Structures are given as structure tokens and as C-alpha cells.
Amino acid sequence: MKKMGQETANKEPIVTPGWIIMPYRYSVGALASKFFVELRDNKRIIGVRCSECNRVIVPPRSVCNKCFRKLHECVELDCKGTLLTYTIVHYTPSCEWLKPPFAYGIIQLDGADTGFTHVLGEVDLDNIRIGMRVEAMFKDKRQGNILDIQYFRPLAGSL
């Protein structure tokens, strides 16, 4: 008697290329909804504080990734932070509004314990440096998504 999978164990896999475009709707949950509403309506960035380990996580999530406690205490964060790391992109991504070259960075907002990934703007790509101070720049017309923050730009005097 053959076990399931034995008949294909030593054979070349069959690969079929394809592309699926699938529109969908996704509920982000209560904490992320509050995060996006604050971005849209008030140009504010909120995180969530863990009552066990006191870490502040942004964007908010429902469970602490360090001690696994349920999270619910929202805290307002400064829109300024420190660039932890970055990468410069030299190809055209699927999002149409970014033209290469451009940079993504991981920013630790003041008051947060985690990094926040976003686009860097108004920056000379040859002068980006880890530790640089940056601030969030919001779009004029916001829709309640992460792109309500248009980009993070260097603070004056931080280059």
C-alpha cells in the first residue's frame, strides 16, 4: 500500500504560472480602525501600550508580540522619530505613485518601542543616514489608510 505523496516524491513538480487579481475587503479590527480614523480625522498617530511589559507598539495590534498579553490602552505618539534603517529602491513597484529611485525606512516614533515602515520623502538619497530624525507629513485629502501619511521627511538640521 502506497502512502499519499509517494507517487510524486521523486518527480519534478509541475509549475503553472499565473496571475490572480482579486478585489477584496478586509476588516482591520477595532485597534487598527482607531489608528486609521486618527490618521484621517486628526493627523495623529496612535500606538497601544502593553499593561504587562509597558511596550508601546505602532501600528497598534491586539496582542503584545513580546509577552502575548491582550492590548487595549491606546496612546498618542509624536509624529517625529528616528530612522532605524532604510533601503533605496531602484525598480518600479506596483504602486504607481512612487517613481524610482526612492527610499523606505523603518522609523521608531518618539514614545514607541517598535519600528514603523514607511516611505521617506524630501530627502537626498545620498545623504540618508541611520539615526536621522524624521517627521510624518500627512496628505491634505486623507482616506483612512496608511497612505494618509504621505511620507516621513528629515527634520531641519538632522542631515
Molecular structure report:
The chain has 159 residues and is mainly β. The chain has one domain (30-154). Helices cover 8% and strands 30% of the residues. It is built from one helix and eight strands. The strands form two sheets. It has a five-stranded antiparallel sheet with strand order 6-5-4-7-8, with no helix packed on it. Strands 2-1-3 form a three-stranded antiparallel sheet, covered by helices on one side. A hairpin with a 6-residue loop joins β5 (102-109) and β6 (116-120). The longest helix has 13 residues, at 30-42. The protein starts with 29 loop residues before the first helix and ends in a 5-residue tail after the last strand. The model has no long low-confidence stretch (mean pLDDT 91).
Concise summary:
This protein has 1 helix and 8 strands.
How do the helices and strands line up, and which of them pair or pack?
Blueprint: H1 30-42, E1 45-49, E2 56-57, E3 73-77, E4 80-89, E5 102-109, E6 116-120, E7 133-138, E8 149-154
Order of helices and strands, N to C? HEEEEEEEE
Low-confidence stretches: none
Rounded mean pLDDT is 91
What is the first-to-last residue Cα distance?
69 Å
Count all strands and give the number.
8
Question: In which order are the strands of the major sheet placed?
Answer: 6-5-4-7-8
Q: How many domains make up the 3D coordinates?
A: 1
Helical stretch tally = 1
Helical percentage: under 10%
Portion in beta strands = 25-35%
Shape: extended
